[in-house]
Amino acid sequence: MTSELTAVRRRDGVAVIDMVGDVNASAEGALDAAWAQATEGHPDAVVLNFEDAGYINSTGIALIVGMMAKARAHAIPIRAYGLTPHYREIFEITRLADFLAINPDEDSAVHGAERSST
Q1: Per-residue pLDDT averaged across 70-84, rounded?
Q2: Helix (H) / strand (E) containing 78
Q3: Averaged over 5-24, what is the pLDDT?
Q4: Which whole number is the average pLDDT over 59-81?
Q5: 52-to-27, 43, 95, 99 alpha-carbon distances in Å
Q6: Does domain 3-110 fall into CATH 3.30.750.24?
Q7: Angle of helix 28-38 versus helix 58-73 axis, rounded to 10
Q8: Residues 66-85, mean pLDDT to the nearest whole number
Q9: What is the DSSP code (8-state) at residue 99?
Q10: Dihedrals φ, ψ of 55, to 5°?
């Protein structure tokens, strides 16, 4: 993931980080920059959009955990959507889903709808 492939959007007081490509060690700089941009002005929440993300390896999971730790330290809710069934299962097995609301779509993630059961 390069910085050109990571975008930050604002929607209804929420920062949405669009991730495109593989989430691995080479994504660290882009994710750090996106996090810094997303959290400027203390948004109501940060939403991670995985719709266009590719492969997520263990280093990528660690980077996501790092963002979750920063969010918790600054009392910023963090949510996600667009995970494939495979990665959703990984988030459930690793218990990331206990600390990161997984939503079925962008609207529910932005508006803080309850975590989907599907």
Answers
A1: 96
A2: strand 78-81
A3: 93
A4: 95
A5: 14, 23, 23, 22
A6: yes
A7: 20
A8: 96
A9: T
A10: -70, 135
Residues contacting residue 87 through CB under 8 Å, at least 6 positions apart: 50, 56
Token pair recorded at residue 33 = 């920059």
Do β-strands 78-81 and 45-56 pair in parallel, antiparallel, or remain unpaired? parallel
How sure is the predictor about 109, in pLDDT bands with cuts at 50, 70 and 90? Answer: very high
47-64: b (≥16 Cβ within 10 Å) or e: bbbbeebeebeeebbebb
Instruction: Report residue 27 as tokens.
Output: 């994504």
The Cα 112–Cα 79 span in angstroms is 8
Place of tokens 């990984």: 90
Cβ atoms within 10 Å, residue 18? 19
What's the whole-model pTM score? 0.90
